[in-house]
Amino acid sequence: MAIAKILTYTPDRFDVSSTRERPKTQKELEAERLAKIEQEAFEKGYREGMEKAKLEEKALLEEGRRRIEDTCQRLNSLIERLSRYRKETVEELFPEVLNISVEIASKIIKKEVELDRNVVSYIAQECLSRVEETDASIVIKVNPADYDVIVEHSKILKESSNIKNLSIEPVASIEPGGCLVETDKGEIDGRIGEQIAEMADAVSTATHRDL
Fold first, then answer.
1. pTM to 2 decimals?
2. Which residue has the higher pLDDT, 115 or 175?
3. CA geometry: angle at 12 spanning 9 and 18, to 5°?
């Protein structure tokens, strides 16, 4: 009976060098370089765009605030000039002139609100500048038509006032363009109608005339 011969199994030698990554071609390297440049350019453009948008938004708020201040200053200047030159003929017309002046100012302000939806942000910023308790919970109440605008500017309003806990609430009874700021210590009234009424009262007190 023949005896089978057992052969020892010897595995083929594993050549590590055979698995090495194939060197990239010049075309592939150039494609990677262009892709990297494109990504860096996109990221740089995005950062610059965000910075520009922030600066433009702050500039709009500042411009609106200046416009409102200028309107008030012009009205005060008109009242001062009328007060300085009260002669007999002017004295007779004075109440009517004041009424017309206040009415015109009211129409100018309301027209400004219609033309510039950011007015509510300027008024809210002015109201928040009078808030002392920056750590308290502050609520800005605005007309529903102004809600999206004030939400859009909420980050800048927080930064400019240093108020940490700021919320926004739509209230239909508040006129467009104005706002009512509620704090733990009371309210700061930035409603358009109330501002005009206060202006009329100030004029009436200064001139001793009922408007």
1. 0.49
2. 175
3. 165
